[in-house]
Amino acid sequence: MDSICVTGGAELHGEIPIAGAKNACLALMPATLLSEEPLTLMNAPRLSDIKTMSSLLQSLGSEVQSLQDGKVIAMSSSGPVNTTADYDIVRKMRASNLVLGPLLAREGHAIVSLPGGCAIGARPMDIHVTALEAMGAEIELKDGYLHAKTSGGLKGAKVPLRFASVGATENVLMAATLAKGTTVIENAAREPEIIDLADCLTKMGAQIDGAGTSTITIQGVDRLGGATHPVITDRIELGTYMLAPAICGGDVECLGGRMSLVEAFAEKLDAAGVSVEETPRGLKVARKNGRIRAIDVKTEPFPGFPTDLQAQMMALMCTAEGVSHLEETIFENRFMHAPELLRMGASIDVQGGIATVTGVERLKGAPVMATDLRASVSLILAGLAAEDETVVSRVYHLDRGYEHVEEKLGAVGAKIERLSDR
Ligand code: EPZ
Predict the structure, then answer these.
(1) How far is the CA of 301 from the centre of ligand 1 (A)?
(2) pLDDT (tens digit, 9 = 90+) per residue, 253-292?
(3) Known active-site residue 25
(4) Which of 48, 166, 402 to mutate for ligand 1's pocket (most ligand atoms within 8 Å of CB)?
(5) CATH number at residue 288
């Protein structure tokens, strides 16, 4: 298993290109199942999760080609579709559950493994199931698999979500495009990735209103065509790299970044003493004079502060002046980066869903372990400012969501290298 070694202390200067959004691409790819015509995605990120989704879709009978060094994904689902998504793929990546809605819409039946828990929480699928049952699906759990079927096809319905689940919104949105009649999703997730999926489905011929708001209305159509669609910029990768100059000084321009993708996050950075300026090419980020100030953060569904940037913000708060409180409201166990940061000399007290961080002057490099995707990158960020060396092990977690992290940070002056143990 690879590790990444970071030697702290260097200021960062230069440009970091931000890739296409992992969480948009993972929702866009299953849309190929809704049409017999080609669906091509541009600006795709080169990540292991994308490879996992490609393998899953191929196991269902789709053709998936990775072109231009992975930046283009050409898909076609014209042939017979296998409608069983196996546990051995689904357990590796929860987003595999996003084939449920499209399979039900296309074939009228699907057998999709429950993803099982993951490091950050139980992450059940009750909201997905309740919503699809409202559209006429019959779904039962057997041997760890959801067995779903519809007699006579899905029907449009009013679908209130008890929580603005991103995945449930995406599954229902895709299923509703081919349902008979009108579907209204209430309390829908408002993330930019939802808007991107709706834009792509509309190009394929779907009739969708209200994507990006809490109420999305979908008028079902008989069939969808193909499309070519560029994946939006990854707002979580963007926020992650915005924190790099904030943590160790300097100034970095994140190419492709737009303020609209990270408004709540940028406001918190500003309050902490980090300047964020929108330029024609992206977002220019620099630490203002003096030490970073401690601020409080509460994660919320978009447009609130993203849970996927909580671990990274904690790394910044570890050396801020004062005491900060980070409240995690989306997942029940998303502070696993805290014990690793403690090994680097941080002062963090976790009580339930709130982590209280008392800033210290400087962290000390140490061997630490990645536990989940965003926790792993928060340790890299902490290492950028720490004394001496930090070695982050189990970086396969990192490779799920960040392409070439050592190249991108190395290019702006970070002392960082990947250690492959043979
Ligand atoms: C998406 O996961 C993202 N993944 C996650 O990013 C992100 O953290 C999350 O949304 C929240 O923003 C992808 O888009 C591939 P949810 P998703 O359904 O759809 C509970 C990353 O780091 N819930 O909005 O699975 C659930 O347990 C990943 O890139 C139910 O209880 O998130 C969680 O506590 C991590 N029942 C909360 O809702 C359900 O049926 C939010 O889940 C569904 C969800």
Answers:
(1) 10
(2) 999 999 999 999 999 999 999 999 999 999 999 999 889 9
(3) no
(4) 166
(5) 3.65.10.10
Domain count, the chain: 2
What one-character-per-residue DSSP string does 92-112 give? T-GGGGGGHHHHHHHHSEEEE
Q: Using CA atoms, how far apart are residues 79 and 63, in angstroms rounded to an integer?
A: 9
Q: Does residue 89 share a domain with residue 26?
A: yes
> How many angstroms does the Cα of residue 123 sit away from the middle of ligand 1?
7
Shared domain check, 251 and 193: no
Segment holding 145, helix H or strand E: strand 145-149
Rounded to 10°, the helix 310-317/373-385 angle is 20
Domain boundary among 230, 258, 286: 230
User: Where a domain ends, among 179, 211, 230?
Assistant: 230
Q: How far is CA 218 from CA 120, 182, 404, 414, in A?
A: 32, 6, 38, 47
Q: Provide the pLDDT confidence category of residue 5 given band limits of 50, 70 and 90.
A: very high
What pLDDT digit, counting tens, does each position of 358-389 carry?
A: 999 999 999 999 988 999 999 999 999 999 99
DSSP-assigned letters across all residues of 295-335: --EEB-STTSB-GGGHHHHHHHHTTSBSEEEEE--S-SS--
Q: How far is CA 289 from the centre of its chain?
A: 32
